[in-house]
Design goal:
By secondary structure, the protein is of the alpha/beta class. The chain is built from nine helices and eight strands. The protein has one domain: Divalent-metal-dependent TIM barrel enzymes (TIM Barrel, Alpha-Beta Barrel). The chain has helices at residues 23-32, 57-71, 93-105, 120-133, 152-159, 172-177, 182-189, 218-227, 250-262; strands at residues 5-8, 37-41, 74-79, 110-113, 137-141, 166-171, 193-197, 234-236. The chain has an eight-stranded parallel sheet with strand order 7-6-5-4-3-2-1-8. The structure holds zinc ion.
Amino acid sequence: MVDEFSTNTNLLAFNKEHIDRDMDELVRVYASHGIRNLDLNFCEMMRPSSRLNDKRAEDYIKTLGEIKEELGLNYVQAHAPYPVRGTKPSDWDGKIIKALNYAYELGCPHIVVHPTGKDIEENIRYYERFIKESDIIIAIENMESPEEISEAEEINEIIKSNPKRLKALLDTGHAHMRALDIKKEILTYGENLVGLHIHDNDGKSDQHLFPLMGTINWKDVIEGLSEIGYKGYFTYETMYYSREKSIKDEDDVIDKAIDSFHHLF
Ligand SMILES: [Zn+2]
């Protein structure tokens, strides 16, 4: 089991000043705290003003590649943008495909793409188009609502349609929102599991807090991962913790995140 801390670049994405933070700024902040393993947050494309949405995108990606080399970073996974509720999923295909190709170019071993709705066959068709348009492994994330794909058995079913290119990512907070037995879910995923979104909540709302701040049984999570011989990273997706914090408190946010990680084992 790789017990190294990793975080989505969105760990400091929100702040009470409502100032947007881009990935090329944030990866340097994380690296200054010794964090080497990062999940690139291409959900940034969902913000219309993002440089990823205009002709600056190519330079932005190049810069992320240069910083990776300069600081010896490891881009362990990436997160694709996803259709906002109430919009047509296919309207987002262009952005998602761009994110897949950027992630591949930057050396990410896989990228997380949310499923759409609840129907297995529809999801198989949905992922086919992304498989065709890119070379990267796609990790399917379990969602938090009953109207969405949320269980390991469903995700394993989708993966069967192309087990080489499709894998699974377990989001601990989402599984807890659905009151699932997370250890059992992990055992059901087995070898399909290539990544994690680690965060905690009270089981009622998707709070994206640090582990041990909510009611997830983390001992069970660690046991499950160790039983399946999980070799991926422990990637934090705890972006809401910093929402009420000021940018000047960012060092404290990072220290608290790392500290909570050490209490997990
Ligand atoms: Zn997630």
